[in-house]
Structures are given as structure tokens and as C-alpha cells.
Amino acid sequence: MAFIIDGKKISNEIKDELKEKVAEYKQAGKEITLAVIQVGHDPASTVYVGNKKKACEYIGIHSLAYELEETVTQQELLDLIQSLNKRDDVNGILVQLPLPKHIDEDLVIQTISPEKDVDGFHPQSVGALSIGQEGFVSCTPAGIIQLLKRSNIEIAGKECVVIGRSNIVGKPISLLLLRENGTVTICHSRTKDLKEVTRRADILVVAIGKPKFITKEYVKEGAVVIDVGIHRNENNKLCGDVDFEDVEPVVSAITPVPGGVGPMTIAMLMYNCVNAVK
Ligand code: NAD
To answer: Contact, 68 vs 84, CB < 8 A?
Structure first.
């Protein structure tokens, strides 16, 4: 039986640690504020923004909500970000993605001051990560490292295989595993003989975006499997990129979906907000 890596429990531990830190800051007269901008009324985005606000409340971070109409111009959004960049009382700025088609997402991300880039998407944050300098690390990959470390899973010297090379998951998690001294291989849609590569993995991170794609034929016995995927099946039940029932019996540890990587993203966003005070 595999060890089930409990993302819910670990994320709660992190949030409780942060709550204490925020209370200390408050005693020293320091308030932390996160500005959250949502454009339009996409239901999924509304749920994500709501969860972020709830986490802020729990930890003691003040959140400022900006709910802009779908028709807002790009310039109006950029002006708002620039005004928040200048405010000393705002520590972090988050623009909920995706944005409507008439707005250039890259330009919006680049407009957020790197000192307030709590999502870690700014090119300066990504560059800092790739050359080992300090900066915000994007939340989902940072959460995966916490899951491994807090489950006492050694990364140094391990064969780490990442499936997926997206800017928000695949690339940053590869850099983070490298920073932790893993031997990292990145697979993607043009990888030849995926199974042959993934079966070498001691730690397999799956961010492929295809429900239950990874079956036991893709994993080495005793490997650690981290499933980043989130999908809703026809019965409205959540599942990941890994076929959990098939893979769990042959691995040493695995994250479930839900309750694995998912809860870590918000916990690490809160971590970045608290660290933005520095
Ligand atoms: P994406 O679609 O941007 O990237 C998928 C990657 O998989 C691509 O780089 C592609 O090259 C690779 N790929 C596709 N088919 C492949 C194949 N047959 N063989 C090998 N590689 C292949 O997805 P993403 O944004 O990185 O997200 C991946 C999954 O993680 C999605 O299910 C997404 O919903 C989920 N996700 C979860 C969280 C979280 O908080 N838990 C955060 C972000 C993304």
C-alpha cells in the first residue's frame, strides 16, 4: 500500500504557521494586504478568487477585491495595477487568469511590480528562479516541493521526471527539482517513448492535462508520483492525470485528487504574500 501524501493536511499546517507569523507582524504594527483583481464573471475564476479571499481571512491577511467588468479596457486594467504598484500599503497583487481576449495577459503580468508578484509569473521572478536568485516562486510548483519535503521524501540525487513543460507547472517544477539537486528530465508532447522515460523516475511529476493518462505501465515499482492534473468526469467527480486506482498499488507514495497538489496552491500563495512583506 502506498503512502498517500495528504495535501489538505500539509496545506493546513502551512496556513497555521503563516497565521502565527502574521499575528507576530501585527503585533509589530505591520499589516499585510493582497490586492485581487478579477475581470468578468467566469464562474471558475469566481470560485478561485473566493477561496483566495477565504484563505486571506483565515491567516489574517487583508484582501482588497477589484471586480472589473468584462468590458474594461486594457489600459484601465494596467492603470489600476500601476496605482497598486505605487501603494505602500499593498504588499501583493494578483490578477486572476484567464483574462478576456482583448487584454494581453503577458503585458498585464509584466506590469505587476516584481516585488508584489505573489503569483510568481513575472519574467523577472521566472528568471530569478532559473539562475538561483531570490524571488517569488509560482505557487503550484512551490507547493509540490513542500509536499515532498514535509513527507520526508529525499529529492537530492533522485531521478526526477516531469511530464509537461507549461510555464505555470512543468518548467518551474523542473527548475525547483534541479535546485533541490534532483536529476531532472522533462517530457512533453514530442517525447518519443514516454513510458521508457517515465519508468526511470524515482519521482514522477505529472502535469499533462489528460484525465487518468498515467497507468501502472508508466511507473517504476516504488516510485513517488505527484499528480498535478485536475479534471471533472461525467459524474462531476474530480480526477487527476494519473489513474490512481491502477497506479497506487505499485508505488511507494502518491498524491490523491482531490486533496493532493490542489490545496497547496493557495497555501503557497499565502506564503508568498507573507514573504512579500520583506
Ligand atoms: P498545459 O496544457 O499547459 O500543458 C500540458 C503539457 O503536457 C504540455 O507541455 C504538453 O507538451 C504535455 N503533453 C501533452 N500531451 C502529452 C503526451 N502525450 N506526452 C507527453 N507530454 C504531453 O497544462 P498545465 O497548465 O501545465 O496543467 C496541467 C494539468 O495540471 C491540468 O490538468 C491543469 O488543470 C492542472 N493544474 C493544476 C493546478 C493545481 O493547483 N493543482 C495548477 C495548474 C494546473
So the answer is: no
Q: Which residues line ligand 1 (CB under 6 A)?
A: 140, 163-166, 168-170, 187-189, 191, 194, 207-209, 228-230, 241, 261-262, 265
Q: Map residue 272 onto helix, strand or coil.
A: helix
Ligand 1 pocket test, pick from 144, 169, 191, 217 with the greatest ligand atom count within 8 Å of Cβ, gives 169
Three cell numbers, residue 176: 525547483
Show the 3-state SS of 198-248. Answer: HCCCCEEEECCCCCCCECHHHCCCCCEEEECCCEECCCCCEECCECHHHHH
3 state SS of 8: helix
Nearest CA to ligand 1 atom 1: 166
Give the pLDDT confidence of 238-269 residue by residue, as tens digits.
999 999 999 999 999 999 999 999 999 999 99
| Phi, psi angles (nearest 5°) of residue 4 | -90, 115
For residue range 64-109, list pLDDT tens digits in order. 999 999 999 999 999 999 999 999 999 999 999 999 999 999 999 9
Are 158 and 278 a contacting pair, CB within 8 Å?
no
Closest CA to 179 of 213, 214, 207, 144: 144
